[in-house]
Design a protein that fits this description.
The protein is α/β, with parallel strands linked by helices and 444 residues long. The chain is built from 14 helices and 14 strands. It folds into two domains: 219 residues, Type I PLP-dependent aspartate aminotransferase-like (Major domain) (Aspartate Aminotransferase, domain 2, 3-Layer(aba) Sandwich); 105 residues, Aspartate Aminotransferase, domain 1 (Alpha-Beta Complex). It binds pyridoxal-5'-phosphate.
Length: 444
């Protein structure tokens, strides 16, 4: 596990340096005494419960929570921004930071490239991709922005599509693509509450309405209300019409348990600092084998054979330690189990949405069927969707009830408050939130 994790290749590096490459540095000065931390025992699923059954086992999740530093005095229901590292990952990250800070360029110039590739391979394995299909980036934005900006061959006769539920910065970039190429950039509106079939139908209709569509941004899980799009089904129809897809998986990987092949897309952007639990500063770009031709290399980079995904990004100096901590983060994620995590978060979501849907003054936003739903969902007071009204509600939750949330402003239907529990959030926390909602709904 991560607490005992040795940074990849470091043993080899220590050996090399001890043998003289580093001159006078002695082994003892190179190694880091791992602090004696009392690591809790990882809970076992002794009865072999299904993810859905395990999701309701408070004692299992209470033991998982012991692996996370607890913040006092607030119920934090805003975990969509980035993820808290578990303590083993945090220890590993601190160790990696110390190691890099000690050895600086000697490490970076001699060993980092190889270690980075090993981390990249771990991402590929976890996503079910080939090693050559993944390039590490600093975040999902870098991956997606590069795909949008470097997409080739648009003309003024083309249309590009995106929706109101997409990540605001990517909507801006799609509009920029339209302006720069003097083409039509169309924003579709998806319902604030939807099923998979309804969403698919909207896309099918849009493809008919905009037959010149060449490129489309597709968000797997919306950052507004956690709505899941039926990506594979939409992609199937889009591909028949020759439409290219850039898939935003920033919010989905780890919140949902899936492999990249499940999505049927050629290009996707990820991060690991949300739901995989890595340190901040880790993203990934997926480009399916033989799909690189349509995306320019990063300006100035060369890739005549169109086989090098890494040529689509320019990482420059990045957080070495974050990248080195990828295996530890994936290790911990897999230890909990992707399916267990998805089921637990969905269970916590259901605890509040099932009650809130029955409250007269509350409007719950997000998926209407299970396949469209995640642990993340949103709400607002009926008829109150302005930024001022929703901000006031967010403040009230924080100041009156000690519950921290975030306002989202991107939906065509107006603003909402996003509720995002984490694996260490308790059922009791969700109950406290429901009590707050009841009080708010009663006074509305
Ligand atoms: C749907 C979605 N896309 C993209 C991003 C950007 O991710 P990153 O911060 O890794 O660039 C976010 C971040 O919140 C997101 O929720």
């Amino acid at each position: 596990m991560s607490a005992e994790f040795t940074p990849m290749n470091r043993r080899k590096m220590l050996k090399t340096m001890a043998l003289g490459a580093a001159g006078t540095m002695a082994y003892s000065t190179l190694s880091h005494a791992t602090e004696a931390v009392t690591t809790p025992n990882f809970p076992l699923n002794l009865q072999n419960l299904s993810p859905q059954e395990l999701a309701q086992d408070e004692s299992f999740w209470a033991q998982i929570a012991l692996f996370y530093d607890k913040a006092p005095n607030i119920i934090n229901l805003e975990h969509g921004y980035w993820g808290k590292m578990s303590t083993p990952v945090q220890s590993n990250f601190i160790e990696n930071t110390q190691m890099v800070n000690k050895h600086l360029s000697v490490y970076a110039r001699k060993h980092y490239r190889n270690d980075m590739q090993l981390s990249s391979n771990e991402v590929a394995k976890a996503l079910g991709a080939k090693n050559e299909e993944i390039a590490l980036t600093r975040n999902a934005s870098e991956s997606i922005h590069n795909l949008i900006r470097q997409y080739k061959g648009l003309t003024s006769r083309d249309t590009v599509l995106y929706t109101d539920i997409d990540y605001p910065s990517f909507k801006d970039t799609m509009r920029w693509l339209g302006d720069t190429n003097n083409l039509k950039a169309v924003e579709l509106t998806l319902p604030a509450q939807a099923t998979q079939q309804q969403i698919l139908d909207i896309y099918i209709k849009a493809f008919e309405q905009y037959p010149s569509t060449k490129l489309m941004l597709l968000t797997h899980v919306s950052n507004q209300h956690g709505l899941v799009l039926p990506v594979a089904e939409i992609a199937k129809v889009a591909k028949q019409k020759g439409i290219d897809i850039i898939c935003d998986c920033a919010q989905s990987w780890g919140l949902l348990d899936f492999k990249i092949t499940d999505l049927n897309v050629d290009w996707a952007g990820f991060n690991l600092h949300k739901w995989i639990g890595s340190p901040v500063g880790v993203g990934a770009l997926y480009m399916k084998e033989r799909s690189l031709e349509k995306v320019h290399p990063y300006p100035g980079e060369h890739d005549a054979s169109n086989t090098n995904v890494n040529a689509r990004v320019h990482m420059a100096t990045s957080n070495f330690a974050s990248i080195l901590s990828i295996p530890a983060a994936l290790d911990f994620h897999h230890k909990i189990g992707g399916a267990n995590k998805e089921a637990r978060l969905l269970y916590l979501q259901n605890l509040w949405t099932s009650k809130a849907r029955k409250m007269q003054h509350i409007e719950v936003l997000g998926g209407l069927d299970k396949a469209s739903s995640t642990g993340m969902a949103s709400f607002r007071l009926v008829g109150q969707s302005s930024k001022e009204e929703v901000s006031a509600l967010q403040k009230r939750l924080e100041l009156e009830f000690g519950i921290f949330t975030v306002i989202r402003v991107g939906l065509a239907s107006g603003c909402c408050i996003r509720i995002t529990p984490q694996v260490f959030t308790t059922a009791h926390n969700m109950h406290q939130f429901v009590l707050a909602l009841e009080e708010i709904a009663d006074s509305a």
